[in-house]
Specification:
Elements (H helix, E strand, L loop, with lengths): L4 E2 L7 E3 L10 H7 L2 H25 L5 H24 L3 H6 L5 H16 L3 H15 L8 H23 L4 H27 L2 H10 L15 H9 L6 H13 L26 E2 L4 H40 L14 H10 L2 H36 L1 H4 L5 H18 L5 H30 L8 H26 L2
Parallel strand pairs: 2-3
Antiparallel strand pairs: 1-2
Helix pairs in contact: 2-8, 2-10, 2-11, 2-12, 2-14, 3-11, 3-12, 3-17, 3-18, 5-14, 5-17, 6-7, 6-14, 6-17, 7-14, 7-16, 8-12, 8-14, 9-12, 10-17, 10-18, 11-14, 13-14, 14-16, 17-18
């Protein structure tokens, strides 16, 4: 059966093999199998929960919290539809996009361009640098002080260097990220629960929870609606844009579905050489394969629906409760010290003892996010090149592509970190993420209806939800364009 081929559009034909059976669905196996959802959740916490959520609610109030519910719901459905392609073929979804006309000569370059426009602005590194600065110097950085700006840059560079060191060592890069993400998520939840329970007024809990139910409300500030911040808040309530696409790269490396027969990207130093297949493999929808498919879908639901989906909502709630209950309403927390304001206001309420702990918490959140971003961008470009360039595949080892791109991206990050304040960088990227949501949502519908057999393809009701997803995020893109044109 493995000798059979299936046509694959603009790229080479797929191999055909049986779908490997997943482990028996038990609690222990669920914990062992899931993991990409944790990486995506850690990315969400660093962008939306710790930064965008507090910025939006402190500025406009809790009535914007309904956006979190809608955004996360749509992102969970989109992630699972991206994953449907990966579990059927063993390929990341961006490789599937390249299989549609006109092929890699357009999509092979357009999606990496989307990626750099989305995550090429290292606001996470800059915001994490603010936390590190505060922890070491005892005060938040001041943009008007040249020495503070210089040290912020140094700390930002060190953060990038730390990300590179981590992905250079270990056997499977996805596993390294998963390990860091699990530790980060557990620490953050425990810390936020302690702070929220003991130091945040009870009314904040109710006000934030009530905001989840105020559907359609978008409060106006003194100068009108800040559509840039609202669009960023919507996109980063979950993974955000290209980040949702590269969840499938981590699912591939984790071995979901047909990915078990494809291979993965190993680390440069401690990882052994692993053969990453030139093309994916698909399976025939036989009774045995479809039974295995349904079992894999249970694991996907736990990874994306429970771990990622519920985790995003809970993480946003806990972070916003802390900020809303401690920081005075109307405060602009988007300056040079973005990501560290929580420590300042908690110190004012509780005392100096919480200053250092809160800054370390913020640093850990933002560093984990930057780590996922650095790897995510690098593997997206790597998989693109590996998918459409036969010359690169003849090198035999995907690491020869991955690590030069990693170094180039890190060098660019050290340049881009100088261009604007942390939150400005993040808002630029987040609104690009909203556009990518619309574009990739349409594209996955094309891929599914073009390449997936009807037994595997998403039912019509799920395709309708993807359409509504495009309308939801398209609304924020449209309003930002109108605002931009209107001056």
């Amino acid at each position: 059966m493995e000798a059979l081929k299936r046509p694959g559009g603009a790229l080479g034909p797929w191999n055909v093999a049986d779908l490997p059976a997943p482990p028996k669905f038990t609690f222990r196996n669920v914990i062992a199998v899931i993991g990409p959802g944790t990486i995506a959740l850690s990315m969400s916490i660093g962008s939306g929960e710790w930064l965008m959520g507090p910025s939006a609610t402190v500025k406009f109030g809790t009535a914007v919290m309904w956006i979190v519910i809608v955004s996360v719901f749509f992102q969970v459905i989109l992630n699972k539809e991206f994953a449907r392609y990966t579990m059927y073929t063993g390929e990341p979804v961006l490789t599937g996009f390249m299989r549609t006309k006109p092929g890699p000569k357009l999509w092979g370059w357009l999606y990496p361009l989307f990626a750099i426009l989305h995550v090429g602005w290292p606001g996470w590194a800059a915001a994490g640098a603010a936390c590190l600065f505060g922890a070491l110097y005892g005060h938040l950085p001041d943009a008007s002080v040249a020495g503070d700006r210089s040290m912020m840059l140094v700390f930002g560079y060190l953060l990038f260097f730390g990300c590179i060191v981590i992905v250079l060592f270990g056997g499977r890069i996805e596993r390294i990220l998963e390990f860091v993400a699990w530790g980060m998520v557990i620490w953050i939840v425990i810390y936020l629960l302690i702070v929220d329970i003991f130091f945040v007024p009870g009314r904040a809990w109710g006000d934030v929870a009530g905001g989840f139910l105020k559907f359609g409300s978008i409060p106006r500030g003194p100068t009108g609606i800040d559509w840039a911040l609202m669009g960023a808040f919507a996109a980063y309530s979950g993974a955000g844009g290209i980040g949702n696409c590269w969840i499938t790269n981590w699912l591939r490396d984790k071995g979901f579905g047909m990915s078990k027969v494809i291979g993965f990207i190993p680390s440069a130093i401690a990882g052994k050489e692993v053969k990453l297949a030139d093309v994916g493999s698909v399976f025939e929808p036989t009774g045995k394969n479809m039974n295995n498919w349904r079992q894999w879908w249970k694991y996907l639901w736990m990874d994306q629906g429970v771990l990622f989906g519920i985790g995003c909502v809970v993480g946003m709630y806990l972070c916003v409760v802390m900020a809303y209950g401690l920081i005075p309403q109307g405060t602009d927390i988007t300056g040079l010290a973005a990501g560290a304001y929580q420590a300042e206001y908690l110190m004012k309420k509780v005392g100096r003892a919480m200053w250092f702990l809160t800054l370390i918490n913020g640093f850990w959140i933002l560093f984990g996010t930057q780590l996922s971003i650095v790897d995510g961008f690098t593997r997206v470009v790597t998989d693109h090149i590996w998918g459409f360039s036969e010359r690169m595949r003849r090198l035999g080892d995907v690491r020869y592509i991955y690590y030069p791109i990693l170094i180039i991206f890190a060098l660019w990050g050290c340049i881009a970190i100088n261009l604007a304040r942390p939150m400005i960088l993040l808002i630029i990227g987040a609104n690009m993420a909203a556009f990518i949501f619309v574009f990739s949502g349409v594209h996955i519908l094309v891929v599914q209806n073009r390449f997936l057999p009807k037994e595997i393809r998403a039912p019509m009701w799920r395709q309708v939800i993807i359409g509504l997803h495009c309308i939801f995020f398209g609304f924020f893109v449209f309003m930002n364009i109108v605002k931009l044109i209107g001056g």
